[in-house]
Amino acid sequence: MGLNIFNVIKGPVVSDKAYKANIKNKIVLHVDTKANSVQIKEAVEKFFNVKVAKVNTLITKGKRRRIGRSYIEGTYTKRAYVTLKEGYKINLFEQVESNNVQQAERN
Predict the structure, then answer these.
(1) Are 91 and 23 in contact (CB under 8 A)?
(2) What distance separates the 2 farthest-apart alpha carbons in the chain?
(3) How far apart are CA 61 and CA 95, in angstroms?
(4) CA gap 55, 34 in Å, rounded
(5) Per residue in 40-56, pLDDT tens?
(6) Are strands 64-67 and 77-84 parallel, antiparallel or unpaired?
(7) pTM attached to this predicted model
């Protein structure tokens, strides 16, 4: 039995790099570590009602932390860089952009 499509996407990545990617018609998402590119593509197309051109994934290693005399590893996370086809757009940073405009108007 495969991974359920509703459990593939965990949430958006909120960072400066993800914001810059969003301007270039890409979105960056935290996804399940067991999900493959095909499952991620299907989930994004279903939830956001867009067409996906390509999906790139990467796994980031958890940070090593010290507790007492021993070390523990943090959890591994998987990110998906999803490129959308021409004419489609998902604005994950809509609230951030509106706050920036409001601050600019105040100054």
Answers:
(1) no
(2) 56
(3) 30
(4) 15
(5) 999 999 999 999 999 99
(6) unpaired
(7) 0.78
